[in-house]
Amino acid sequence: MRTRLNLSRRPFTNRRLFWLGVLSLLLVSGSLFVWITGQRVQANARTEELKRQILERDRNVTELKKQLDTRQVEIPMTELTPEQTYELAAARQLITLRAFSWNRLLSNIERYVPNDTKIISVRIEEADKSNETALALLEVRAVGKTTAQMTEMMSKLERSGGLFAIDQAAQDATEETGGVPFTLKLTYRPYRGAEGGEGQ
Predict the structure, then answer these.
(1) Among 73, 81, 134, 195, which has the highest number of CB atoms less than 10 A from its own CB?
(2) Is pLDDT at 109 greater than 80 in this prediction?
(3) Is the separation of the CB atoms in 104 and 190 below 8 Å?
């Protein structure tokens, strides 16, 4: 029979638990280091992405400001020569005249012409068309058999319900053929007066 004696001052202890503890501590420390490193990398990546987005937005804001400044630049008005101004006014006048219906105008005038009177010419001196306020200044030249035709036509025009207004009337010298010419300057409002008119 053998008997084991421990003659050391400190009894023998099992060191496996110690090394297992040390190893576990190292594993935990390593895992924490890896996790912290990964979080730092992700945080840096997010920071760089945010910086990139901020720079992109700054560039967009700068570009928008440039576009706004460009749009706010006042365009200098073009100076027209007197000849160009006249041509522009003539072109506008022509556009306005085309807006009037000549057929309607002549039809309206014919309703107020006496039987023994003939229209020689109708001229639009000025026109303004803006919806219901359209009007035109006319010069109507006609020839009657007697001086009474001008008075008769003027009387009929006065009963047009505002379709025609007499601005001026002038009677010329009697022609060799016996006709009596006269000129009426009228204000024509195509949106006023009765469609039928006083007529004949």
Answers:
(1) 134
(2) yes
(3) yes
Check if the beta carbon of residue 191 is closer than 8 Å to that of residue 136: no
Give 133's DSSP letter: G
The domain defined by 101-188 folds into Alpha-Beta Plaits (3.30.70)
CA 144, distance to chain mean position in Å, is: 52
Q: Where exactly are the structural domains of the chain?
A: 18-69, 101-188
> Which residue type does 181 have?
P
Question: Predicted confidence band at 154 (pLDDT cuts at 50, 70, 90)?
Answer: very high
Kindly report whether the global pTM for this prediction surpasses the value 0.70: no
Q: Identify the bridge partners of residue 124 per DSSP, sorted by sequence position.
A: 138
Q: In the prediction, which pLDDT does 162 show?
A: 86
Q: What is the pLDDT of residues 114-127, one digit of tens each?
A: 988 899 888 877 76
Residue recorded with tokens 């022609």: 175
| Predicted pLDDT at 48 | 85
Alpha carbon distance 81, 88 (integer Å): 10
CB 132 within 8 A of CB 144: no
